[in-house]
Amino acid sequence: MTLQTILLAVGPGDADRTDELAETVIEVAQPANATVVLAHIFTQDEYNEVLENLEMDDGSGQVRPDEVASRHSTIRDLRRKFDEADVDYDIRGDIGDHGSTIVELATGVAADRVVVGGRRRSPTGKAVFGSTAQEVLLSSPCPVTFVRGDEENGD
Questions:
Q1: Other Cβ atoms closer than 10 A to 15
Q2: Gyration radius (Cα) of the chain, Å
Q3: Which residues lie closer than 8 Å to 123 by C-beta, 6 or more apart?
Q4: What is the pLDDT of residue 63?
Q5: pLDDT class for 134, splitting at 50, 70, 90?
Q6: Contact between 1 and 112 (Cβ < 8 Å)
Q7: Which domains does the chain have, with CATH numbers?
Q8: pLDDT on residue 155
Q9: How many CA atoms lie within 13 A of 42 on its CB side?
Q10: Does the CA dihedral 112-116-122-123 come out positive or negative?
């Protein structure tokens, strides 16, 4: 199967994982000459907070999630790495529950592969708090690559 579209979905916990995420995506995208859909998924509260922090809320409701995502530091870091590696990408922003929104976006962009980050979690932590990565792994319309961060601790 030839990869044409890779969805790299990031969220608030991925700022410390940009090197690992970028390396993984570049390794897969370059040989296939695939386009990366670089997406930042926000919950409504996260989105409102980022609007405020970036001083983008003009009160008109005209600021699109794609614009907010493109200005987010995690996306800017990944863009630099993809530019250096000459990997084509599009930037998307979306608001909703992290797991289900990633799955919907993967379907919407006809992704051939989804890449998500996460951390090592204890079985109890997964049962109590759920796991975005677990939801994506179980519900994605295509294969998923999970990039684990370097955190030593569980939850």
A1: 13
A2: 15
A3: none
A4: 83
A5: confident
A6: yes
A7: 5-148 (3.40.50.620)
A8: 37
A9: 22
A10: negative
